[in-house]
Amino acid sequence: MSALSLLPARRPVPGVFVALTLTLTIGWLVVLLDGGQLFNQSTTVSLLHVAAGLGLVAVGQTLVILGGSLDLSVAYVISLSTLVAAETMNGSDGAVLPAIGLVLVVSAGVGLLNGLLVTRFRVNAFIATLGVGLLLKGYLDNGYDGPAGVTAPSLVQSLGYQRVGPVPVSFLLLAAVTAAAWFALTRTRFGHHLVAVGGDPEVARLSGVRNDRVLVTAHVLCSMCAGLAGIYLASRLGSGAPRVGTEGLYDLESIAAVVIGGTALAGGRGGVVGTVGGVLLLASIDAIFNQLEVDAFFKQVIRGVIIIAAVAVYARRAIRKAA
Predict the structure, then answer these.
(1) Rounded distance between C-alpha atoms, residue 220 and residue 183, angstroms
(2) Average pLDDT of the residues in 73-94
């Protein structure tokens, strides 16, 4: 039996879904006592829209973190993608597909650069992706003072606002991307290799895994997921926004969702289903606090406490298993 066969993609920790259920239950009761209603259609739709944008980024972030890497450039890739999409469409429905294709090519190029810096030049992933993100920030700050371009009306109406019942089309896109990522991690050689590299790079190399190729692929897929999030945000805003990624804290929020979902920051353990649970948990907290009109500062404090608690719980669980 090869070493790789002993390293399947781990199933997500179910604790995040227990936490999500408790959060929604307690939040519903608190909002009800406050005179509001948490589970109405407008709140549900808003929650799922928030989850869709963050979830697309977080699924990609899960891939690089599983491989023992990280991507801090995603927020800037999102901002750049909104501009590329909106300026290419320029209000024309006929330019939707070329715009989407161009966004994916540009974002894949950024991911390729990240991957090569991490693998070929052996730059720490934190520094490499932060550096690439700052390069993109310089371009955005120098080239744009505000919104630019016009998103095609058909994309705004479909991806931006259309729903199937109470479920936005954007959330269905997230579900499709999550399913594809889950399949890749659990049913393909790439997924097993990625988990192996994140678990122990040297063992993976000795087992015949091309570590560099696997990590570069993960970085490319991560940036493409950020590109999809940019297309979605452009459809919501109706134009490109040079600061939407950083103002939304998509880099840190995506990492938080991944960690809350049970993926180890050191790599080698976790999954995208748990990440979606983490995304829904963060979106639910936002929805509850918005209903209660809680101060934004206090909201961030609570988020920080949840992230620290999640990391502490998973760390203790890992220590117990090792013992």
Answers:
(1) 17
(2) 98
Q: Are 152 and 92 in contact (CB under 8 A)?
A: yes
**Mean pLDDT of the 188-201 span:** 96
DSSP code of residue 160: I
CB 310 within 8 A of CB 301: no
Q: Quote helix, strand, coil % in the chain, to nearest 5.
A: 75, 0, 20
Type of residue numbered 218: A
With beta carbons less than 8 A apart as the criterion, state whether 293 and 28 touch.
no
**CB-CB contact of 105 with 116 (8 Å):** no
pLDDT tens-digit map of 272-287: 999 999 999 999 999 9
What pairs with residue 168 in β-bridges? 163
Q: What pLDDT sits at residue 14?
A: 57
DSSP label of 95: G
CA–CA distance, 27 with 230 (Å, rounded to integer): 30
Burial of 243 (0-12, 13-18, 19+ CB in 10 A): middle
Host H or E run for residue 304: helix 296-322
User: What is the spatial distance between Cα 213 and Cα 208, in angstroms, rounded to a whole number?
Assistant: 12
First to last CA, the chain: 25
Cβ atoms within 10 Å, residue 171? 21
Angstrom distance (rounded) from CA 211 to CA 98:
33
In tens, the pLDDT along 33-49 reads 988 888 899 999 999 99
Q: What is the dihedral of CA 198, 200, 203, 205, to 10 degrees?
A: 40
% of the chain surpassing 90 pLDDT: 80
Handedness of CA 3, 218, 308, 123 (dihedral sign): positive
